[in-house]
Write a structure and sequence with these properties.
The protein contains 2 helices and no strands. It is mainly α. It has one domain. The protein is rod-shaped and about 50 Å long.
């Protein structure tokens, strides 16, 4: 069936979703900054 054929776009989307999920998980487990510090640096820069 056609659905059995690999679709490069689908594969790319799957990879991007996988990477995004890894990044989200990493941010949750190890936040690189405190939100207040981020806001302060944004306003003062």
């Amino acid at each position: 069936s056609p659905s059995q054929n690999p679709n490069p776009v689908t594969k790319i989307n799957d990879i991007l979703n996988y990477v995004n999920n890894l990044q989200d998980l990493e941010l949750i487990l190890n936040p690189p900054y405190q939100p207040t510090l981020s806001l302060d640096s944004t306003f003062t820069s």
